């Protein structure tokens, strides 16, 4: 009894960061959730159904925004009105360093994978990367990039709230599915993957 009470699951809201974004994704702030859904649907309809070019649309919106801000600033100086409420357009060194650290980790990971394939001749990694790239290519052939991003917004606005509502039932089904996947991967690893040479480069070095 005591152990069952001490073990606490992390809530979906905490898993999403516990901030305003989590409130929007869990529909606790209806205004933000509806705004995100309507705006993403409008952009998807504009770019996919209406056939507008995203680059030209963004350029037109930025051009209109720059013109409005310019005339707003000029009229504010002439009529002694407040300037446009624009924050300081400056990127801090801390944010640059944090972004650089994240990019460095991903770049080093990609380079290590490339090293395993190109230098070490790791056929197992090559098969995994090829399967992943084929899956991305297959998904890309089914829909455009804009549709793919729009589906991501729809899933972000539906999956967390459904998981929060039916968390216990979904966790039970996921545990069963994970066992099935683990057993299937274990059999695949024993039958196929273990027979693939891990590194031709290491064999060459040993022979030398």
From TrEMBL:
Cellular compartments annotated: Endoplasmic reticulum membrane
Transmembrane found in the keyword field: yes
Top-rank taxon, per record: Eukaryota
Gene Ontology biological process terms from the UniProt entry: response to bacterium
Entry-linked InterPro entries: Reticulon (IPR003388), Reticulon-like (IPR045064)
Regions crossing the membrane: 30-48, 55-73, 132-163
Name of the protein in its database record: Reticulon-like protein
């Amino acid at each position: 009894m005591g152990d069952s009470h001490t073990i606490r699951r992390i809530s979906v809201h905490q898993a999403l960061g516990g901030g305003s974004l989590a409130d929007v994704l869990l529909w606790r702030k209806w205004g933000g959730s509806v705004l995100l859904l309507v705006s993403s649907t409008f952009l998807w309809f504009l770019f996919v159904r209406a056939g507008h070019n995203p680059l030209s649309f963004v350029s037109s919106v930025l051009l209109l925004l720059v013109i409005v801000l310019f005339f707003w600033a000029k009229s504010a100086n002439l009529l002694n009105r407040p300037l446009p409420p624009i924050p300081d357009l400056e990127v801090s060194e801390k944010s640059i360093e944090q972004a650089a650290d994240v990019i460095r980790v991903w770049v080093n990971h990609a380079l290590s994978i490339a090293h395993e394939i190109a230098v070490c001749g790791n056929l197992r990694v090559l098969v995994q990367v090829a399967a992943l790239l084929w899956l991305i290519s297959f998904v890309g052939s089914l829909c455009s990039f804009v549709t793919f991003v729009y589906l991501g917004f729809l899933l972000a606005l539906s999956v967390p709230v459904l998981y929060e509502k039916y968390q216990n039932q979904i966790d039970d089904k996921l545990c069963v599915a994970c066992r099935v996947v683990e057993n299937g991967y274990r059999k695949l690893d024993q039958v196929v993957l273990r027979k693939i040479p891990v590194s031709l480069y290491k064999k060459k070095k040993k022979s030398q």
